[in-house]
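Entry 14. Ran structure prediction on the chain below.
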Amino acid sequence: MNDQYSSGASNAAGIAALLIGALVVLAITIGILAIIAYFVSENYKAIPQQYRKMEPGKVWLMLIPMFFCVNDSEAAVKTAMRRTPAAS
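Output, structure tokens:
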């Protein structure tokens, strides 16, 4: 019996090609993000220290997925707590 699901070699080759393509896209994406992080870091270095919200080296944390969403919300909570007077 020769049905359409019997050719395991062609399925394996297709899966390998798909994985290689996904890895290439991932490498290109990380490369683009690294270039953006470099440019942002260079611009942060031009800002005087007293006006910076973060150090230029922390810009590289942008490469970690969802880091800035968590980091920004944590900073917003801390800022709100500083502005709210303590209940006595």
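The helical segments are 8-46, 67-83. Will compare against last week's run tomorrow.
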